[in-house]
């Protein structure tokens, strides 16, 4: 067994040197560190250099970083916590400032502008230097405000508190050259339809995502159970479809969310799942919904209540396109999801109107689905948006998807290769690795012995061992945009949002930023990850995110001592 | 399929009659209800009648009930929520007051006095009447302050808010005759050693327990990882054994907790697990601990770190007895747990001192364990305390336990009969039904594929189907004191305490109060339980307890509609 740091501590604790853990998450792709403690000078400040007009959201981000450097108050996770460094800190060199600068152009766009660009053209890379000299200057350089922002996030993670208010880094000098993500899509999906989440819950989630450099918030905002999303021109959808007047995202709320996200380097992908998962629309537009609340629901839907858009009806297709258009054009993202999972054929077979519509048009159901999709996707493309769909649209149906369409793989990690084989881009969200809701028992009411359909629980370790490139050819690799962990909320609510998601959902954030190898060339692995994930979790708690303990605190303070020896 | 209430609502919603759900938890053992809405009169008050001196904790409880009747603001879980009753409420009769009285003696003891009596002699029964007449008087009668307190808890659950501040019951008249628990032990166990929980977290847990009439808080306060419990005369145990100076229960904290519990009808069973699970004592008393932090831990303990009290040493036995005595005599409970689970024999085989002690005394390890137990239990008995042990002490070791000893069954529900066969009283805490921590993945650091040892997750439905009397003879039934759900906290912390426990842990509270049958004579079952558990969960959320959603809100508002039809 490799001797872990805590055992070495028995002999070297007086020197305060226990530097085997680099508590950064996600691990930069390039990292060199020393063993010198450097504290922030009382006059420490953050400056921007060589930019003619600094974007307001970058100035705000700098301000938040300065606040957090003082307010995190995170003590190192070693036996003795911050006190182990007190002696060394008395004579430690001070860091006088951090300077941010952009390479090349003196004109920079806002973080939000950069974060909401096309997924293929975002610039998130940065370099960082933290010297060990007294009175030294740290630097972050990047090609964009978004890169500087990612660098600030790394910078914050380097600092600890000694228990008496001294803020310091303990691994100076730190040099990170050209850190940049392996994949542009590092996401988290939240379902706000099965149960409602307040804007404050979503903001807190975005804060957690920001801490691990996530780039995409996938907002599964409506579903068969409720319609909390205000659509301009269609107020009846929320008036009749939201759980209550207090459980609606107003147009102002939506702008607050996309702006809060964007200024934190996160693009928001809004999804209106179609044509399935739309039962609730029957409360305001029964004319557009087949098999609305049909019984037994098991015959018409994967979960109650049943109800799907009448895809063979031109009126329904146009109605759907109008909804999508009216909301999509208000959103900064270049992407919009039309969903497309779990279509129930029997619902349409039993629906007289759909059968009549099919007969009138001479189309099969699959042909009607294709026409429906051309209508909704055509609308999106007309306003410059790229469509995103669940995997069934690519793999199970006879739908023509344009080349730029992004496909979300969810049913099984085994299905990724079939998507790339069609030349389509994909996002990994496999239920067998990334579903955060699995393993909490059956939620259907009268099944006392049942477990969740995707048992067992997907531990952070399980998620962390996901291989984004498994069974893909070299030519298919560029089609992988990244991945995300997902929270479906049949059994979740604001009360357990943080605890079910964090720090677990950070696993994929590292896989898709760091890639397959650590800076020293070894493959990423749970043994290296665990102490860093502890650190992230404790820092999240300091920031008001209710991330849960991964182990007894005894283990968190003693890296390696709760591993199996055999 | 039985037509659920929400479907009937389609036709009768205008009458506001949807009364199939009696949203009480635990269900009283006797219940008659009507269909009349009764609102609280503006002058509504709660009076105590015929008691010469009303105990202060009963007065305080009444005050809290009055506050909650106004502050709960829980709207009924039906489509339309509180608004469905608005029309009927305008002309509804008003309840003028609630009168509490004690049958027999005019002298009553405090709730805390009654709640901390010997487990076999507590009086929790009560009768309740809520009339449907205008200007009527509701009554709660009982033999003790504790019975009145249980009645108040039921009374609170009868009231809802219509969304405009009108507080009302909707099932008057309500008559409950001689409701009393099927079992006296209805508990919840919290481990505060693997991870620390603040006094406020414990108070909030006691609040939740109180809502479901739980009677026992089992506080597994110390373990091998940390020793947060202040023991008078042994300050070094916490000074060296707590995670930090901020993670200690002071003597004052302990009194706050037992008083907060007692005045809410809850007895606190404190456990100091011995002789295993004591590694942390080596930080202050290495002389008493065998195999302290021995490596590999797998050879010496069920989880890290290894370390057990040197049970063959008379000095260690006396030290242990002193600790137990010094804390136990400060506690109101008549019970104290000496633990006794997961003893590791190899630890003692490898410990030179234990081997020398055994040789000197001529005892086998089992004989030494018996002597050790006689010392600790003798000390408890000398101060009037009943010992509580984990099942291994009764089933796996050659230890003589006195008849009054209470045994906790945890390894398997199958082991209960073996305990009663020995004539010992038991508390059900089987890991296969009642462990709240199962199913969250492996927490040992380097086991990426592992699941928890007690997979899968124990859903509320699973817990609810536990049969306390399975495979017991009629003669053995009186030996069953009740049961409890347990939270071991290797993967829990204050951040998920509420969400992992509630409303799940309420399942056993109903099993052990209501018993096997509902008031109408049918067997208790998850279909009847679900809407009531939803109601409890929503009420907990209103009171600041982060109980999680059991289903989409759509289902919670439509009883039966998320059941399988087939």
From TrEMBL, chains A, B:
Membrane-spanning residues: none
Recorded family membership: Belongs to the glycosyl hydrolase 20 family.
Keywords assigned: Glycoprotein, Glycosidase, Hydrolase, Signal
Protein name: Beta-hexosaminidase
Signal peptide: 1-23
SUPFAM superfamilies assigned to the protein according to its UniProt record, in alphabetical order: (Trans)glycosidases (SSF51445), beta-N-acetylhexosaminidase-like domain (SSF55545)
Species this chain originates from: Agrocybe pediades
Gene3D superfamilies: Chitobiase/beta-hexosaminidase domain 2-like, Glycosidases
GO molecular function, one term: beta-N-acetylhexosaminidase activity
Domain Beta-hexosaminidase eukaryotic type N-terminal: 24-158
GO biological-process terms attached to the record: carbohydrate metabolic process; glycosaminoglycan metabolic process
């Amino acid at each position: 067994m490799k001797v872990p740091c805590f055992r070495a501590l028995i002999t070297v604790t007086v020197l305060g040197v226990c530097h085997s853990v680099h508590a950064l998450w996600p691990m930069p792709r390039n990292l060199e560190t020393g063993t010198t403690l450097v504290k922030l000078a009382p006059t420490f400040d953050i400056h921007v250099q060589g930019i003619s007009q600094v974007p307001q959201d970058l100035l705000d981000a700098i301000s938040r970083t300065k606040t957090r450097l003082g307010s995190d108050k995170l003590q190192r996770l070693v036996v003795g916590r911050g006190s182990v460094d007190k002696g060394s800190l008395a004579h430690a060199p001070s860091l006088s400032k951090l300077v941010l600068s952009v390479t090349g152009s003196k004109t920079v766009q806002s973080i939000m502008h950069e974060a909401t660009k096309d997924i293929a053209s975002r610039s998130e890379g940065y370099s960082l230097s933290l010297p060990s000299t007294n009175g030294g200057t740290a630097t972050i350089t990047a090609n964009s405000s978004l890169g500087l922002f990612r660098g600030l996030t790394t910078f914050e993670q380097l600092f600890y508190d000694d228990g008496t208010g001294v803020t310091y880094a303990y691994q100076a000098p730190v040099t990170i050259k050209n850190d940049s993500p392996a994949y542009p899509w590092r996401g988290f999906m939240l379902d706000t339809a099965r149960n409602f989440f307040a804007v404050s819950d979503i903001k807190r989630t975005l804060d957690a995502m920001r801490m691990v450099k996530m780039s995409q918030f996938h907002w599964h905002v409506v579903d068969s159970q409720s319609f909390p999303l205000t659509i301009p021109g269609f107020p009846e959808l929320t008036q009749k479809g939201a759980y209550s007047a207090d459980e609606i995202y107003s147009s102002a709320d939506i702008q607050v969310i996309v702006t809060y996200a964007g200024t934190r380097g996160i693009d928001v992908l809004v999804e209106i799942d179609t044509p399935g998962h739309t039962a609730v629309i029957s409360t305001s537009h029964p004319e557009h919904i087949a098999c609305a609340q049909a019984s037994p629901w098991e015959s018409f839907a994967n979960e109650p209540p049943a109800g799907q858009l009448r895809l063979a009806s031109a009126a329904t297709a146009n109605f759907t396109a109008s909804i999508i258009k009216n909301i999509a054009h208000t959103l900064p993202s270049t992407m919009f999801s039309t969903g497309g999972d779990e279509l129930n054929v029997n619902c349409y077979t039993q629906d007289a109107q759909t059968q009549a519509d099919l007969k009138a048009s001479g189309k099969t159901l699959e042909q009607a689905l294709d026409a429906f999709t051309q209508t909704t996707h055509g609308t999106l493309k007309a306003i410059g948006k790229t469509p995103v769909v669940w995997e069934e649209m690519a793999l199970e149906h006879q739908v023509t998807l344009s080349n730029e369409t992004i496909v979300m793989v969810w049913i099984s990690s085994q299905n990724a290769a079939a998507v790339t084989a069609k030349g389509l881009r994909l996002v990994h969200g496999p239920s067998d690795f990334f579903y955060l809701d699995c393993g909490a028992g059956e939620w259907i009411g009268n099944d006392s012995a049942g477990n969740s359909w995707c048992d067992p629980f997907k531990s952070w370790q399980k998620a962390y061992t996901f291989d984004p490139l498994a069974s893909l050819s070299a030519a298919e690799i560029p089609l992988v945009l990244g991945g995300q962990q997902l929270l479906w909320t049949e059994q979740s609510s604001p009360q357990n949002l943080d605890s079910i998601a964090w720090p677990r959902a950070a696993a994929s954030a590292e896989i898709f930023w760091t890639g397959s190898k650590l800076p020293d060339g070894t493959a990423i692995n749970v043994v290296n990850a665990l102490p860093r994930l502890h650190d992230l979790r404790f820092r999240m708690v300091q920031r008001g995110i209710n991330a849960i303990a991964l182990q007894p605190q005894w283990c968190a303070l003693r890296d390696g001592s709760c591993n199996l020896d055999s």
